[in-house]
Design goal:
Elements lengths: L1 E7 L2 E5 L2 H21 L9 H14 L3 E2 L11 E5 L2 E3 L14 E6 L1 E3 L3 E2 L2 E6 L5 H19 L7 H14 L3 E2 L5 E3 L6 E5 L16 E4 L2 E3 L5 E3 L6 E3 L5 E3 L2 E5 L4 E3 L4 H6 L2
Antiparallel strand pairs: 1-2, 3-7, 4-6, 5-16, 6-9, 7-8, 10-14, 11-12, 13-18, 14-17, 15-16, 18-19
Bound molecules: 2-amino-4-trifluoromethylsulfanyl-butyric acid (MF3) and cobalt (II) ion (CO) (2 copies).
Length: about 270
């Protein structure tokens, strides 16, 4: 395993080779396929626990293991975050979806060799408010604006600044307490990929770096709080929150997105 000479908070950043890209393609594809599979089930009346079971069955049938199970004591195959829940929503038998909800589902299957594919999308349940639809749209565009900058020489500051500017232009706010992360054979690795920043600062991207970009966008303030279960994170002002996440690799001249949905793949043809 090669290491970059750059460090993040004193810890080295891994540089992956062509074979590692192959593994990430497989893990990323299972992650994306899991969300493609769950999409039609995200409807009024279903519980988040049932959605979690469907995700788990799909990931296992595809030959992967949900990396979140027993991760720092977490017990579920997915995180399911509804409306004002920002991230790490815990699947529940009593949380029933209703029309108008926005629901982020975040899955991280790991395959043989411990390669992780980490992705999330925010789904809309039935007809949602104009505000909710705009928030979801902005969260997707903010993530993709960050992804579009990924190439050797771009800095993580460039990416954070771009994401934040998309969010601010929409008069929404970018959550500061959680960030993207290096990923590969380690679920949460260096570097930290924050969704704010100053252009031209921070880690300079090099071919072979793998990380996630996963902005959380609040309709109100950026402040969040973690509930008593130590996982569920909500907006402090109870405003709506939306998030999307892709796992990417830096190539010689740009980016490879490992977690493209079938729809995104078709659009990129
Ligand atoms: N998939 C989440 C992320 O994007 C992490 C979930 S960890 C869990 O980084 F333990 F909450 F599942
Ligand atoms: Co992640
Ligand atoms: Co994730």
């Amino acid at each position: 395993m090669r290491l970059s000479t750059q460090k993040d908070y004193g810890k080295p950043i891994r540089l992956h080779d062509a074979e590692h890209f192959e593994h990430m393609r497989i893990a990323g594809r299972i992650a994306a396929d899991t969300l493609d599979h769950i999409a039609p089930y995200v409807r009024p009346g279903i519980t988040t626990a049932e959605l979690d079971r469907i995700c788990e069955a799909f990931m296992r049938a595809a030959g992967s293991i949900p990396a979140t199970i027993d991760y720092h004591g977490y017990k579920h195959a997915s995180c399911i975050s509804v409306n004002h829940v920002v991230t790490h929503g815990v699947p529940s038998e009593t949380k029933v979806l209703k029309a108008g909800d926005i629901v982020n589902i975040d899955v991280t299957p790991k395959i043989e060799g411990n390669w992780h594919g980490d992705t999330s999308r925010t789904f809309m349940v039935g007809e949602v408010s104009i505000l909710a639809a705009r928030l979801v749209d902005v969260a997707y565009k903010a993530m993709m604006a960050g992804v579009a900058l990924v190439k050797p020489g771009t800095t993580l500051g460039d990416i954070g600044a771009e994401i934040d500017s998309v969010i601010r232009a929409a008069r929404f706010s970018s959550v500061r307490d959680f960030c993207g992360h290096g990923v590969g054979q380690i679920f949460h690795d260096t570097p930290q990929v924050v969704h704010q920043g100053k252009r031209g600062t921070g880690i300079v991207l090099e071919p072979g770096m793998f990380f996630t970009i996963e902005p959380m966008v609040n309709a109100g303030g950026y402040q969040v709080k973690v509930l008593g279960d130590k996982w569920t994170t909500v907006t402090k002002d109870h405003s709506l929150s939306a998030q999307f996440e892709h796992t990417v690799g830096v190539t010689e001249d740009g980016v490879e997105i490992f977690t493209l949905s079938a729809k995104e793949r078709a659009e990129r043809q």
